[in-house]
Design goal:
The structure holds three protein chains of three kinds. Chain A is built from one helix and twelve strands. By secondary structure, chain A is mainly beta. Chain A has one domain. In chain A, strands 10-9-8-11-12 form a five-stranded antiparallel beta sheet, with no helix packed on it. In chain A, strand 3 and strand 4 form a beta hairpin. The N and C termini of chain A lie far apart (73 Å). By secondary structure, chain B is of the alpha/beta class. In chain B, 34% of the residues lie in helices and 19% in strands. Chain B contains 14 helices and twelve strands. In chain B, the strands form two sheets. In chain B, strands 3-2-4-8-1-9-12-11-10 form a nine-stranded mixed beta sheet, with helices on both faces. Chain B starts with a strand and ends with a strand. Chain C has a five-stranded antiparallel beta sheet with strand order 10-9-8-11-12, with no helix packed on it. Chain C has a three-stranded antiparallel beta sheet with strand order 4-3-7, with helices on one face. Chain C has a two-stranded antiparallel ribbon with strand order 5-6. Classes of the chains: A mainly beta, B alpha/beta, C mainly beta. Chains in contact: A-B, A-C, B-C.
Chain lengths: 160, 387, 179
């Protein structure tokens, strides 16, 4: 059986190294562009109310995926940059599996006045305490440094 | 097996780069198809998403990412994918969802967002080459087509102007298409022959442009179709076939895999003499020579005869056998999978007599659409007829 | 029937974004540079093939059922769907099956000196069986399908066990013979 044929030379090449290099530019989208421009310029969050099921979709979007209807212009609403912690974890490794200097709290925040949520860094020390339901507020970068991306949200801080 | 009819089609405009996300493009195309069919999301039983390599959109496993824009949330949903063949393969998958009896109404959405990939969508194409044998040579995908085109031209002694004629025809046909990216009423053969050489014999105007876009189709089983239309268009045959990945072991002058796929589809459609029975076709035309290559693969003429028929005007919109009346990829644009809009939606619009400015004269009854992909090895074919 | 002047589909949507919109920051966007590395397994056929290239020779595999001699070599014949049977030495000469002269690089950027590229069917392999490679020492008005060519190898000290151990293929006869 030739599949079992031995390598002629144990030091022979067995693997080939390479990458799949390409860079990406993602436009934030029709609704996303409006959401992020508003975040950049006004420092507030935008959401959209579905005309059919009345769900307040956050971040704002072009359509309601459940009802599959388009959001009319006057259903765009401004909502507070605050919310409560729904889910969280303390990360000890970064994206490359390297240890972080100190554990970082990643949390899913339910945004106030909406049916949606957003992932962010929660600015708290590691604790055994249950943080679920903790009221938090977004900390944004100074106006001049904002660029209209998720990076404009530095983190969420517990509300005072 | 149930008969399957089309009850709606939709398409976004095709452009080099668009503001809308892939989800949003999918929504816009789907919504248009739903409005034509007069149905809502709740009426759809199953959804098929067609999208080519993740490396264009730059979202890994983009099928899942696109699902909410494709009305897939909460429904049986699947993404199908065979490179450039996807634009016809996705509707084939939609067809079997309904033909099998699993769904009464199936939605097919195709999306591509090539503008995300930098510095050029060609960069993503680098990764489809064999990493050991081909990639160390720093290939560009255009090389493949240049080599295939050269082989095709040499075997039949075809002149470049006879190939350029296809680019001219399709870019002119596209003038009647509201989604078209590069329609051109005034383009001439000289313009094509004088355009910049990319990889000889391929010049800039021999190539369709990369695009962002989406298209959608809604299929319905024959026993339910009368509630939507009195004049349905049916899918009468489908076929698909793949050749060896070892492309340096194949003679590229003839796409045998397209012929195999066409034979499968024609058998199902009870077509014995495709040249006589088929009224028009939408062969896949990412390059102008591919329309000729595929006309031959689809057995719509003899081998080597496609350039001659094109020169004689047979493939013009008002000719005996119109090719790419939509304007094809050469004129409307090439968002890989979303070219379902030209290759399958167009069959529906033409056969239903709804093509408006692009309508083929003479009451066409049977049309064939085809796509092509992977490393010059995948053929996908669909035959449609008026009920 | 739709009126002849109507544009179908009616009022398609989508918002074009040009370079000016991006570089002028008219739209917001996110930028990402993925970093991921791969280590592809070569398998026995490709390992041996590259090993032989390092020695300055080309090898193929023979399928005894269909009698094809396969280059690039593989441990199975995709046609017969059987394991292949033996190693066969292949010549480093062959015939141009098709070619292109490229004025763009792999990112579609223009280049000044064109790249001559094509498929060479190799002597000793089955008809039409070969590999893709560069051509050198040949002019644009000389190269043609059917031209006989021979591999030009890197010096043995520079070879790494890669397809690029062959620098390019050059015409067997000076001037390349007539078209």
């Amino acid at each position: 059986m030739t599949f079992l044929e031995k390598q002629t030379d144990p030091t022979s090449p067995m693997h080939w190294r390479g990458d799949m290099q390409a860079d990406y530019l993602y436009p934030n989208g029709w609704a996303g562009d409006r959401f992020f421009k508003n975040l950049r310029d006004k420092g507030t969050f935008l959401a959209t109310r579905c005309p059919k099921c009345s769900k307040v979709l956050f971040p704002a979007r072009l359509y309601c995926e459940d009802c599959f209807v388009e959001i009319p212009e006057n259903n765009w609403i401004e909502v507070p940059t605050s919310g409560i912690v729904r889910l969280y974890t303390f990360a000890k490794l970064d994206a490359h599996w390297e240890p972080l200097e100190k554990p970082r709290c990643m949390a899913l925040i339910d945004i106030e006045g909406t049916d949606g949520s957003i992932l962010g860094v929660l600015d708290v020390e590691e604790t055994d305490e249950d943080l679920t339901g903790l009221p938090v507020e977004a900390l944004l970068r100074p106006v001049k440094e904002r660029e209209g991306t998720m990076k404009d949200i530095v983190c969420f801080k517990p509300s005072v | 097996m149930k008969d399957v009819a089309v009850i709606g089609a939709g398409m976004t405009v095709f452009r080099r780069r668009m503001l809308e996300t892939g989800k949003e493009l999918s929504f816009l195309a789907t919504k248009m198809a739903m409005e034509e069919a007069g149905i809502e999301k709740k009426d759809i039983d199953m959804v098929v998403m067609g999208s080519a390599p993740d490396a264009f959109d730059g979202i890994h496993m983009k099928g899942e990412n696109l699902s909410d824009g494709a009305a897939g949330t909460g429904k049986p949903y699947v993404r199908v994918f065979n490179g450039g063949g996807t634009g016809v393969f996705a509707p084939i998958a939609g067809w079997w969802h309904v033909a099998s009896g699993a769904a009464d109404i199936a939605l097919v959405v195709c999306e591509e967002k090539m503008g995300s990939c930098y510095p050029h969508p060609q960069t993503a194409f680098r990764h489809i080459w064999d990493p050991i044998l081909d990639r160390p040579l720093n290939p560009n995908l255009v090389w493949l087509f240049a080599m295939e085109m050269n082989r095709y031209m040499s075997v039949y002694n075809i002149k470049k102007e006879d190939i350029a004629r296809v680019a001219v025809k399709n870019k002119r046909n596209a003038v009647g298409h509201p989604c078209a990216q590069i329609p051109d009423e005034k383009i001439t053969i000289e313009d094509v022959l004088n355009s910049e050489v990319m990889a000889w014999p391929v010049q800039r105007l021999d190539i369709s442009p990369p695009s962002d876009g989406a298209s959608a189709l809604i299929f319905c089983s024959a026993d339910k179709v009368r509630q939507f239309t009195d004049d349905p268009v049916f899918v009468s045959g489908v076929g698909w076939n793949i050749d060896s990945t070892m492309w340096t072991n194949r003679d590229l002058y003839f796409p045998q895999y397209v012929a195999n796929a066409a034979k499968m589809a024609y058998k199902m459609a009870h077509i014995n003499n495709p040249r006589k029975e088929i009224d028009f076709a939408e062969p896949y035309d990412p390059f102008d020579y591919k329309e000729l290559h595929h006309m031959e693969g689809l057995l719509l003429c003899k081998k080597g005869e496609a350039p001659i028929l094109t020169r004689e005007g047979v493939t013009e919109r008002d000719g005996d056998m119109p090719m790419c009346p939509s304007g094809g990829l050469m004129g409307v644009g090439n968002p890989i999978a979303a070219t379902m809009g030209q290759k399958v939606c167009e069959l529906y619009w033409q056969l239903a007599g709804k093509a408006g400015k692009r309508q083929i004269p003479g009451d066409p009854r049977i049309g064939v659409g085809q796509a092509w992909g992977d490393i010059m090895q995948m053929g996908t074919v669909i035959v449609m007829r008026r009920g | 029937m739709t009126g002849n002047d109507e544009m179908v589909p009616k009022d398609p949507r989508g918002t074009h974004v040009g370079n000016k919109d991006i570089y002028g920051r008219k739209i917001t966007y996110s930028w990402w540079e993925p970093e991921v590395q791969y280590n592809w397994a070569l398998g026995p056929a490709m390992s041996r093939f590259l090993e032989e290239l390092k020695k300055g020779s080309i090898v193929g595999r023979k399928c005894r059922k269909c009698r094809r001699i396969l280059v690039p070599p593989r441990m199975f014949c995709e046609r017969c769907y059987n394991p292949t049977d033996e190693w066969v030495k292949i010549e480093d000469t062959g015939t141009i099956e098709t070619f292109s002269i490229s004025y763009i690089d792999s990112d579609a950027r223009k280049i000044k000196d064109p790249i001559f590229i094509g498929v060479i069917s190799l002597d000793g392999a089955s008809p039409k069986h070969g590999i893709m490679h560069y051509f050198g020492e040949v002019k644009a008005d000389e190269i043609h399908i059917g031209m006989r060519v021979k591999a030009v190898w890197k010096h043995v000290s520079e070879r790494t066990g890669a397809i690029t151990d062959i620098k390019y293929f050059k015409p067997l006869k000076k001037g390349g013979g007539k078209k």
